[in-house]
Amino acid sequence: MGNVGHAIFLTVIILALLGRTTADPTWKLIDGLLKFVSVGSKGVWGVNRNDDIFYRSGTLEDGEASGSGWVNIAGKLKQISSGHSVWGVNANDDIFIRQGLTASNPTGTSWLNVAGQLKQLDVSSTANQVWGVNTNDNIYRRTGITTDLPAGTNWEQVDGLLKFVSVGPAGVWGVNANDDIFYRTGTFGNEASAGSGWEHIEGKLKQISSGDNIVWGVNVNDDIFIREGISLRTPAGTGWKQIPGKLKQVETGLSGQQAWGVNSGDYIFQRTRLTATRPSDIFQLPTIDGYSVRVGDCPGNDIWVIYGDGITLQDCAERCTSHPDCVSFMFFDNKRCFPKSRTCEETSQDNPKNVFYDKIIEDVLSAVDGYTPRTGDCPGNDIWSIYGDGITLSDCAERCTSHADCVAFMFFDKKRCFPKTKTCDDTRKENPKNVFYDKNVDPLPSIDGFSARRGDCPGNDIWSIYGDGITLSDCAERCTSHADCVAFMFFDSKRCFPKTKTCKDTNKDNPKNVFYDKPFVVTERNVALNKMASQSSLFRSEYPAERAVDGNTGTVLYPRQECTHTGLEYEPWWKVDLGDTYVISHVTVINRGDCCGERLQNFMVRVGPFEDLRENTPCGDIYSETPSDGETIDVRCAEPISGRWVSVQLIGREDYLSLCEVQVFSGSDPKSVRLTDETSKRWRDDLRCGSEFPAPNATRGECDPDSCFPCCSQSGYCGNTPEHCDCADCVNYGTIYGVEKSPVWSGLSEEALLSVSWREDFRCGPGFSAPGAEVAECNPHSCNPCCSGSGWCGNTEDHCGCPDCVDYRSHGVPGIKWREDGRCGPEFPAPGADPGECDPISLFPCCSAAGECGGTAAHCKCEGCIDFRKSPGTDLSREVPGFLLRVGDCPGNDIWSLYGDDITLDACAERCNSHADCVAFMFFDNRRCFPKTKTCKKMNKDNRKNVFYDKESATLLSVEGYTVRTGDCPGNDIWSIYGDEITLQDCAERCTSHADCVAFMFFDNRRCFPKTKTCEDTSKENPKNVFYDKKIELPPFVDGFSVRRGDCPGNDIWSIYGDGITLSDCAERCTSHADCVAFMFFDNKRCFPKTKTCKDTNKDNPKNVFYDKDIVSMTASSERGPEFTAQNSKLDWQETATAAGAWSAQPWLMFDLGRSKRVTSVVTQGRNYSPDWPGESHEEWVMSYSISYGDENGDKVWYAGDDGETVVFEGNTDRDSKVRHDFSDFSGPFTARFVKIHPRTWHGWVSMRAELDTDPYLDF
């Protein structure tokens, strides 16, 4: 059975070890290795570490059978459950049920894929109930299961979060991510019930199994427990009983008659003949008075061992008891005794014949006034210790109390006392006789203007002050009076250490020391000064990289040596290591002044966390202008960027790079940096947090302080309730990073608070009332505007999109009158309006004749256009002619602003209209006017009194042969033209007349920038600028190849050039070469064949075309035999004497298209028949199937119809006819590299030939 048959032990040896006869209940070691085992009415099933599946022969419907061997079952599963049926989940969380299970065929016939995804599931043995949990710990139960429909019909979500769930006669039980245990009320003796809530049960378990009046489980240390006292009267039981032994997973079987489990070494154990009176009679290792027992061994001993065939367990125990330092012993192989002066936290389970005994230490930790005791020891002492048989605990405590620097002591073996000036974070538990005592410390004294922390941080760089008369106020005054002081340490009530840098972490060893931080105030400064710098090459030793960060802003390279200088190279670079992470707002570059200033043209600044500058984020755009000698260039980042490395590099040019000074400006201190970009964020997408859930750039995952879920709960989830933000162990990252969040009650008066219709605890719906509503609602302006079917406010699909959900953003009105897709008019109804309208206070308030919302004249002023700002009932009091209105604000302005109580909206609009570069303005608080030369994509809606106005754009002018878009893209590489009389037609003619021109930007109605490369994205900040792309004809199709726009440099098969070269010549060149997989056809006269394709092509020049050879490979989850391979699934495949006329197996067949392609249709056939086939004639085909697809595997997305339901395609009705399905007849074509066909029903056997049709134009 693969790697299942690697460990066979004689049961008689185990029985002898356990001191039992075969008539007694025992744990029996079963041959094989499994990582997960399950027992139920369908027998014993399991999976190993390779996800191979096994059935234990002879265990079907036999409550006590051990079976007689393992049968390997086709397929792969990571977890399995045997009950009334057999279910499982694979590595991709796909769900399967075993079909065809009968008494005569206990292994079944096939696996059926069930819709949905779960990471773990459990099946009841008695009521055919299936419960499971997904990767987000959401809980589901399967409904609609009947004898005729064993797979059921739907998954029904159940309230709560669990990582593991089990269903059985004792009800539904589960454990969450924090190992807390829960029982589902109302499910005992009624597994078919969904229950009515979760009851928290004391204790901690990582895995659990519900049986007949008993529940089994194991904790994080693999200790085994059973729940006692379960009955109809006490369905949650009365207490946990620990069972000696170690298992990582355990399951109880049919009617509780047996239990199976696996340990950390994947060894398999079975326990039979469980009864109500002896449900836990397992691992009954021989006991010795005064000792606790566990299975396993722990190498080594430090007390003289005893060997011999006559050694008994009693001899070994007596040996340990008689030695004063012995705290444990291992009894090994019935003839060796290893006494030890230290215990072992973990014992090795590899050899279950060995047994380990721990001496039971009866002493309760003795209390000492002024100290907190802990079990264990911590080596070393730095205050003179005291020894002797007469030493008492009181003597040791007095020793510590009398010493001014003593903060803790260890009392060892009742005769040694070790006082210490530093405590220990963790104590060793190996010797439970030792006790550690921490001196109780008073609360931290506070001081105005500083925040206090326990601990110390070595060193100071401001003159310290000492003396017995020094007070905390003196120390604070010392720091406050020094301009550079940001923190100080007050030490031992007589020493003051002021510091110019704070400490991220303080040393807690001495709790008497206190550290104080001055509140952080942002002041912008150059953080690159005198930092470590490097460059790509060195022209001469006099011009090193450090010249750019030495603080000298002189610009003379020679003879003053004030600048850096690289050698002549392609794209030279310079970079600086800031030594810590800062938030960078802008970078100033000072150019060489004594000559050669033009060499700095086309440079880019990057900022980020990586030493490899290519991985960091650009700050601003490429500086494409030609700098003058000695010019100071200030490069502004579009948004502040967090990073440690800053670089300057020439882009696309070969030249020297010379920099006289680079100043990197930040307004942040490293300790307050909040990392927000994808390459450096400190939180996770799954909203988990804490020490057990590391983030990409934090070993302890944080929560996004700018999100709706800024707080980390005790159980490791990000959220915003009091259980996330206000508990003792909660962490509020919004507070830590200084992010002010608008509370649920933002902007409400005291009177309004008495009538709000939502609650602070986020509960809603029937059964929950609010101050102003019998049925509590959710705040429509908060992060949680929707009420779920289970009565919680939130913002997920389960809160806003379910049948019983209520979205209060649109509740209480006829419905939202506009659509999310921006369509409007009679053909596009909205939830609350037919025809659909446009949002009158958005950037797109008008409906065009074509049914699209927008804000141009073509949307607002044409015949048939509708301006919904002018609709009845719309508030027009804030409308300004020539501007579009939006609610909210966007900080900053770059045109002189206006302030004053008399400033009117009209005055602000006039200010913007009178300035040639003004495109928008914000009117703030009815007395401030902020005109801007750039608009804002997103508005801050927190203050709805503020209003933002965008200047209306004129309708974009069309030019024949070009497509037009709003925005700009800096730079040009064809001679530009300027002038007040330049027209759009002049600019277009300039581009058309230049052979290499593919696009141009028409700027401010007087500048024309032609370009040989287009821009994928244009900046929309200035809507007056317009960008035009030359229309490129669709390239010709070549049979057997897919075509992409763009080029990819290089070739490794002999290329061909010439004006007479055709596309057919180039394709033939590639087809005739065995290793050719792609070619580029360049400029209609060059052919570059290649043995490797390119993942991405350069789209800058749309005239170049890249062709990929269509190479499709097929794989399958399984094959019926060597004659039925996946390659036999090609359409029109013919059967021979040795190769079957189709692929045949289950549950899926997968196509690898080589790269992502647009899939347009599917064609299928059944199994071809040939009289040469050695068997009888066959009639085999697939009658129906479904399809899934993805770019990394074929399981990411199931092909669904417009209603969101998975499409089941009609298959074949005979062997050889072809049935084609065009995806445009369903919900449309899809794009993917991997496509899986999942047979649903079939005739005879699952046998199929198939082909996918793809669009040869990959990116057009």
From TrEMBL:
Family: Belongs to the tectonin family.
Residue ranges constituting the Apple domain according to the UniProt record: 862-953
Keywords from the named record: Calcium, Disulfide bond, Lectin, Metal-binding, Signal
Signal peptide range in chain numbering: 1-23
Residue span(s) of domain F5/8 type C: 1094-1255
PROSITE patterns per the UniProt record, alphabetical: FA58C_3 (PS50022), PAN (PS50948)
Highest taxon of the lineage: Eukaryota
SMART domains for this protein: ChtBD1 (SM00270), FTP (SM00607), PAN_AP (SM00473), TECPR (SM00706)
InterPro entries in UniProt: Beta-propeller_rpt_TECPR, Chitin-bd_1, FA58C, FTP1, Galactose-bd-like_sf, Pan_app, Tectonin_beta-prop
Name this polypeptide is given: TECPR1 protein
SUPFAM superfamilies assigned: Galactose-binding domain-like
Any one GO molecular-function label of the UniProt entry: carbohydrate binding
Chain segments annotated as coiled-coil in the UniProt record: none
